[in-house]
Amino acid sequence: MRWFVVVVAILGAAAPLGAAPGVTVVQAADPAITEGDVVIDGDPAEVFAAAQDYRRWPAMMPDVARVEIADQHGVDAHVTLVSPSGHRDNLTFHNQPQARMIYFEDTGNGGRAEVWAEIVFVPAAQPASTRVHIRLYAKVHGVATLVASDRAIRERRESTIAADLAHIRAYFQRQIADR
């Protein structure tokens, strides 16, 4: 997934992508948090269950070529996402099924940044629909602040959330079309 890649941000974040129609991205009161929403077809419990299946992520996100699950015990897991270019993101998951929330921290950035995300799947106003809400926190530390501005980090969070929500929506649209 295009979960915030610290190395890319440090080397120079791309300009934010415009959000796809139906995708909303907003800056939270905390300057290190960006949030976004999209409504998709499907039951929240079913969508949450599918999204917790990390092996599906390459089909959901075009920038995840491979998923390596080091260990998984109930709601906790250590997972590495490998991009098509070979970049690896080491994530530690502590999901909360009662809240239909996927929660992870990026544990492989060498302390240059604190990065975590919450992805919540709740009923939308329309029947048989799910509102997917992403809350992404990313803040660089130390020498990384010299090469990655707060603005660049914010733009990277915005573009990441916009793309991820658009990809999640497209994935579930394909799943419904294939039924």
Describe this structure in a few short sentences.
By secondary structure, this protein is of the alpha+beta class. 28% of the residues lie in helices and 36% in strands.
Describe it for me?
The chain has 179 residues and is an alpha+beta fold. It has a single domain, classed as Alpha-D-Glucose-1,6-Bisphosphate, Chain A, domain 4, CATH 3.30.530.20. The protein contains 5 helices and 8 strands; from the N terminus they run αββααββββββαα. The protein has an 8-stranded antiparallel β-sheet. A hairpin with a 2-residue loop joins β3 (66-73) and β4 (76-82). The longest helix has 28 residues, at 150-177.
What is the topology?
Elements: H1 6-12, E1 24-27, E2 33-41, H2 44-51, H3 57-60, E3 66-73, E4 76-82, E5 88-94, E6 101-106, E7 113-123, E8 129-140, H4 144-147, H5 150-177
Antiparallel strand pairs: 1-2, 2-8, 3-4, 4-5, 5-6, 6-7, 7-8
Order of helices and strands: HEEHHEEEEEEHH
Query: Mean pLDDT across all residues, rounded?
Result: 87
Tally of discrete structural domains? 1
At CATH level 3, the topology is Alpha-D-Glucose-1,6-Bisphosphate, Chain A, domain 4
Radius of gyration: 16 Å
Number of DSSP helices?
5
| CATH homologous superfamily caption | START domain
Structural features:
alpha+beta, Alpha-D-Glucose-1,6-Bisphosphate, Chain A, domain 4, single chain, 179 residues, 5 helices, disordered N terminus, 36% strand
